[in-house]
Amino acid sequence: MSDDTIRLVTIGRIVRRRWRLLTVFALLGALVGYGASLLFPPRYTTSASVLLPGTWEERELLTQTEVATSSVVVDRAAATLGWSGVSGSDLRDQVGAKATDGNIIKISGTAETPERAQRLSDQVAKEFVSYATRIASETADPGAAEELAALQQSVEDTSRRISKLADATDPGETVESVQTRTELEKLRTALREAISTIKQADPVDDEAKNMVVMGSAARPTGEAPPTRTQLVAGGALLFLLFAVIGHLAAARMSRRLRGEPEIAAALGSTLLGTVDVPVERPTHRSAGRGPRAWIRRLLGLDVRWNIPAPQLSGDEASRQIRYRRVCSRLRDRLPSPQRLLVVFPEGDEIARRAAGQLVDVAGSDPLLRAVAVPVSRPMVPDRERESGALVVLSAGSWTAGELAGVSEACADAGHAVVGVVLAGPVRATRSADRPRRTAVPAPAPTPTSFDGERDDATGVTG
């Protein structure tokens, strides 16, 4: 698994190099969202407001919202509406209530048409007010009301008697007369406050009896979410996100080797150097034919997305220096001039071009012959005039198991791997720096087709 940190540049590279595939995923997600919108018909939602006069605590408002959506209220609304095939249990999922600021309860209704949604909200609001008023009336105690009226009458009689006593008191300004009038006035005030407190706690004077519906619900003009547009956009975005996550997961699970020491260790040899191959566009990993190859090219799957963009290179002369240095190190490792096979994985376009350039630069010292080896079932020509193999490949394209298979194929054919050369794509600085066309080997159609004529200019088997 790769431990590379996922950065925004990685996401941008996926979008830039896989935009065709991502577009297909987005269209597929949009079609799925459209299909889901056909399964779920459009819904419309509106709400009616009910005002609760007086002072209400928060828990009391929550209780009223539960009453508004209770089965009794919804069943009564369903019976009054009389919609065919719609019962109270069917309407419970379509009715909602919530308390807002100002002691207002909003009762919402959802239905298939704007008209039905409006009627449902209005009817549930009316049934809620009726049911809440009925509860308040039934819970009130008639005996308590009569006792309160009698107590109020007694207090009024007592207040009149206190007034008579105050008038009968010595009107003088003595201390005793002033204290007496003050005590009588305090007694009358206390009685009035007691009556006011009893009235506030009167169950008959319940605020629930004063609930009022604040007009008819507004007829909805648009669908309730999720709308068809939202489902289509959500499906496209969801599939697009899954595609990007899939690319990132595949990259982190990739076992392709990128480091030079890892590649050299997998082939059991020594790295002789790196060479540059100028490119003008992303290179294809495979150039197969047929419907599958055409579909891969159409969707951009034949281009590796997780390979960094080629860096700018120097001129042709600086690139030739790298090839000559590799050839010089190769000669130093050989005890005497001899023939070698330049082995590159079939389908590795960068390695194929680098192998042809190495054959061209080496000339006859050492004499090189390039062959393509299929990685799935590696097969290297038996040892004849060649007495060793030089492996050329691009980094980040092959796993350790695939490279080990190539090394074993070389050993099975009697060729010792004398070195490894890594080829990397670069962007040329000027069009004039493009390398001249050389005869590079075309991938072998079958693992056993190694017989061919030798190009006198390059030493490459065609």
UniProtKB/TrEMBL annotation:
Signal peptide start and end residues: none
Main location: membrane
The entry's keywords: Cell membrane, Membrane, Transmembrane, Transmembrane helix
Composition bias type Basic and acidic residues, residue spans: 451-462
Chain residue ranges for the region called Disordered: 429-462
Membrane topology listed for this record: Multi-pass membrane protein
Segments forming domain Polysaccharide chain length determinant N-terminal: 4-64
Compartment(s) where it occurs, according to its Swiss-Prot or TrEMBL record: Cell membrane
Segments traversing the membrane: 21-40, 231-250
Similarity-based family: Belongs to the CpsC/CapA family.
Protein name in the entry: Capsular polysaccharide biosynthesis protein
Native species: Streptomyces achromogenes
